[in-house]
Amino acid sequence: MGAVRETVDYRKKNGVVRNDFVNLLLQLQQNGQVDPDHDSPDKGKEVSHSPDTDFTLTDELLAAQCLVFFVAGFETSSTTMSFCIHELAVNPHIQDRLRDEVDSVLSKHGGQVTYEAVHEMSYLDMVVAETLRKYPPLTELDRICTVAYTIPGSNVKIEEGTKLIIPVYAIHHDPKYYPDPEKFDPERFTEEQKASRHHFVYLPFGEGPRICIGMRFGLIQTKLGIASLVSKFIFSATSKTPAKLQMDPKATVASAVGGINVRITART
Questions:
Q1: How far is CA 4 from the centre of its chain?
Q2: N- to C-terminal Cα distance for the chain?
Q3: Could you give the percent of the chain with pLDDT greater than 90?
Q4: Residues 117, 223: Cα–Cα separation, whole Å
């Protein structure tokens, strides 16, 4: 609350306008709507509001949106990068293969880690996907049943309105879908392997109409981070690096007890 209030007060007092998330929220709070983009066909048009959807964006609600944006857009991506770095440190052969791909692609893009370059890194995509499989940032999903449903092969009926918990971590570690689930194996995410599994046994971003709104943003942010780091540094295990991380059962976002411990060496 303090950080948001300080930012909002400063911008209002000094007339600061930035093209960012806070500015969009301030527009909503002050004008009841977000200004159209300069090239939008709606620019200059009056926007009508439905009485059923009008609400007041209080300072508390504004701060809440910032918190969600921070947790969903920053914490999950940094957590995924941390777990990926751990696995690269304890699996040097995977790290070497990934670095070879990163070096090869970057050499065609003037050494710049760009959006286009990252999309050419197929093995990077597999490494990140396996990281999210083994360490899904949200270990469970909360849902509400909207239509009465009987579980196939049983007489168990889920009534409409029932609150459900989808155990993402358990599904991702079920040997029926992922043999030897504790092994970090990016090869699980070749096109052939993905096609051989049921679509809904991989849920790092959820699925359906409530799928994570920031999925593409989170993935590209994570891939850009990993590609940049692998191109500049070498990660190796130390005496404090466990072969298997112990997960904190009380953490809201997946977290390892004792944190991530690896040695980081600049490439020469």
A1: 23
A2: 45
A3: 65
A4: 10
CA–CA separation, 122 and 224 (whole Å): 13
- pLDDT classification of 78: cutoffs 50, 70, 90: very high
Give residue-wise pLDDT tens across range 194-212: 999 999 999 999 998 888 8
Cα–Cα distances (Å) from 249 to 6, 67, 169, in that order, read 34, 22, 11
Q: Tell whether the model's pLDDT for residue 225 goes beyond 90.
A: yes
Residue-level pLDDT at 41: 60
- Please state whether beta strands 141-144 and 163-166 pair in parallel, antiparallel, or not at all (unpaired): antiparallel
Write out the H or E segment, with its range, that includes residue 127.
helix 122-134
Question: What structural domains does the chain harbor?
Answer: 61-266 (1.10.630.10)
pLDDT tens-place string over residues 39-64: 656 555 555 554 455 668 888 888 88
Q: Which of 49, 107, 135, 139 is nearest to 227 (CA)?
A: 107
Helix (H, G, I), strand (E, B) or coil at 256: strand
Structure tokens at 209: 């109409």
CA neighbours closer than 13 Å in the CB half-sphere of residue 263: 9
Tell me whether strands 149-150 and 141-144 are parallel, antiparallel or unpaired.
unpaired
What is the Rg, in whole angstroms, of the alpha carbon atoms belonging to the chain?
22
Beta bridge partners of 150: 157
Q: How confident is the model at residue 37 (pLDDT cuts 50, 70, 90)?
A: low
* Exposed / middle / buried, residue 82 (Cβ in 10 Å: 0-12, 13-18, 19+): middle
Asked if 71 and 253 touch (Cβ cutoff 8 Å), the reply is yes
The pTM is what?
A: 0.79
